[in-house]
């Protein structure tokens, strides 16, 4: 019985050496020669922007201001100057100085609620889309930079119950 195990082990070793020969790398001593090559990458000024939703929540009568905050994230190549603008939104009649959300229920889509977007938490500087006038500027670092957006629904006559909304476009200029 020991002989049988030994024979099986010997046969396995022989098969392994026959199917997987060991190859050694050759060495040469006639000399050497070299070549070099350049590795390159050209980066150009570029920016991306992402925006988070702004939700004022569920409320009743609009007798006092509702304040909420969100953010946009700008990623620009290092040292690239940029400006971020926010447009008026998609509701007819909305402007960057007088933004509107509209009802979403059929038959109520012309009813609106006023709101505003600001650059500061004190709600003093409206955020618009005209570079050099009402946009927010910065300089890229090569990483995402978060910029706060301050929203406010001022006290106003309360329209009928519905979900009111608009879509605002954030643009990065670079």
Features:
174 residues, mainly beta, Immunoglobulin-like, six-stranded antiparallel β-sheet, three-stranded antiparallel β-sheet
Q: Regarding CATH, which class?
A: Mainly Beta
Indicate the multimeric state. single chain
Average pLDDT figure: 92
Number of domains: 1
**CATH fold node name:** Immunoglobulin-like
Largest sheet: 6 strands, antiparallel
Shape: elongated
Order of helices and strands: HEEEEEEEEE
Largest sheet, order of strands side by side? Answer: 1-2-7-5-4-8
Q: Specify Rg, calculated over alpha carbons.
A: 33 Å
* Total strands: 9
Counted by DSSP, the helix tally is 1
Structural class: mainly beta
What percent of residues are in strands? 25-35%
End-to-end CA span: 83 Å
Fold and architecture overview:
- This protein has 174 residues and is mainly β.
- The chain has one domain: Immunoglobulin-like.
- It contains one helix and nine strands, in the order H-E-E-E-E-E-E-E-E-E.
- The strands form two sheets. Strands 1-2-7-5-4-8 form a six-stranded antiparallel β-sheet, with no helix packed on it. Strands 6-3-9 form a three-stranded antiparallel β-sheet, with no helix packed on it.
Please outline the helices and strands.
Blueprint: H1 2-19, E1 47-51, E2 66-76, E3 81-86, E4 99-103, E5 112-118, E6 136-139, E7 144-153, E8 164-165, E9 170-173
Antiparallel strand pairs: 1-2, 2-7, 3-6, 3-9, 4-5, 4-8, 5-7
Describe the structure concisely for a colleague.
By secondary structure, this protein is mostly beta strands.
């Amino acid at each position: 019985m020991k002989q049988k195990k030994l024979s099986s082990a010997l046969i396995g070793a022989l098969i392994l050496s026959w199917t997987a020969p060991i190859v050694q790398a050759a060495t040469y001593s006639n000399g050497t020669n070299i070549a070099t090559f350049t590795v390159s990458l050209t980066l150009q000024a570029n920016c991306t922007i992402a925006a988070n939703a702004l939700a004022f929540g569920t409320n009743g009568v609009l007798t006092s201001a509702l304040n909420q905050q969100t953010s946009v994230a700008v990623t620009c190549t290092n040292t690239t100057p940029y400006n971020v603008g926010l447009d008026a939104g998609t509701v007819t009649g909305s402007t960057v100085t007088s933004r509107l959300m509209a009802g979403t229920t059929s038959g109520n889509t012309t009813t609106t609620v006023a709101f505003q977007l600001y650059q500061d938490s004190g709600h003093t500087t409206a955020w618009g889309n005209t570079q050099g006038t009402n946009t927010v500027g910065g300089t890229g670092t090569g990483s995402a930079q978060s910029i706060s957006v301050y929203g406010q629904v001022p006290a106003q006559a309360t329209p009928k119950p519905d979900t009111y909304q608009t879509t605002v476009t954030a643009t990065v200029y670079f």
